[in-house]
Amino acid sequence: MRRQLNTAKASIAEGKYLHMRCAAHIINLIVQDGLKEVDASVKRVRAAVRYIKNGTSQLVKFKELAEEEKIDSKAFLKLDNCARWNSTYLMLKAAITYEKVFARYLEQEPSYATALSEERKGPGHPDDTDWENAKRMTEFLGHFFVLTERLSTTMHVTSCNFFFEIGEVHFLINSWMSSDDPLRKEMGKRMKDKYDKYWGTWLEPTPDEMVRNLNESGREKGKEKENMNLLIFVAAALDPRYKLSEYTKLAIAEMFGEENGPKVWAAVKECVHQLFEEYTNLYAPPGASTQAEEPRGRMKSLIARKVKLNGAGSGNSKSELEKYLAEYTEPENNNFDILGWWKVNSSRFPVLAQLARDVLAIPVSTVASEAIFSTTGRILDEFRTSLTPFMVQALVCTQDWLQRARPINIQEDMEQLAELEKELIEEFADTEKGKRKWDASVARSQGGSKSRKTTPTTTS
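The structure corresponding to this sequence follows.
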């Protein structure tokens, strides 16, 4: 794809930043490695939940004991999907609430322990150690559960927060590695290895690789071994709350260490300036360039180049990027509307606003798009394979509207709905007119043949 786009001259930065890994998938891999340390405990809790939910008598008895223990919880036992750690988190969270109920059920129902025993090829029933492991795992997984929800949202910009969410993962894993608890420390090590594979290392090309990767113009094509996509950092730089500030620099140093931190920081700054130059060539307003045909314009450009080479210059000659970075950062606010900010300031930074529009549109997770395929799979099953494309689209869109966080007020939108209905009628007028003509002709033909056949009967 990169080669085709470069041939068509339709890519930015020669397609160097085309590939963005899904954040939710990487978090899933990191957490799955951590779960291996408590795999036995998770299996026992899962087996216990499955046993209770597997029969009516078990459920009735379990709920009676829960009432006796005065367990006041709306969430009941949930069985997880082994391939999805977030469902495992929800299962453990619900099961921990009923820990005392499981203990009483074990005392009163001997068949429970027998059914889960190793003799029956079961993992065994959860004991105190297993429940303790489940509590610690639930506490830790809760952070990743909230993190995944934030990164998988579809109604908000996610790319500008990606870098700092990665930093949160880094902090959580390091806190477990420095714990005195052997279990947490071992889990932290496993997760750190997986984290470093995708987000924690910075690969520098060797001199031989740099020579091999040089193209005809002398510019580097890219590394064989892929680092983190630098657009993650560019999106943070385009956030007016952070920019290329000391805060961002220290965050990079914290994540990559004293040795690689300065290298990453230099690469980020270079990337931001290169993208700005490329977007300036593509989207700079016409009045921004000097008129080459005028002698005065040529002289001004010559002097400007000499001033630039001498490292001097007045404040008026600053570029958009320099002006943007020189201004104070916006105050930290979780409800900050970054798209609204760029919309208001697009007249001051037209080129940067174009860059921000493209970079901030990048989703950092494929969860939303994968959910769309799951939705269509539920709509088009083996019993409903004859739905028309229009009806499938209507069902998918209706479900999406119903799932919106903001409810639709029909009373306030009556005028808009009337306009929409009018547009739909006009759009499908020709189709409906042709359909009516066809139905009428079919009815006439069927009616004529039917009358001819029934005439002798009715006269008789």
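Residues 367-447 form one domain.
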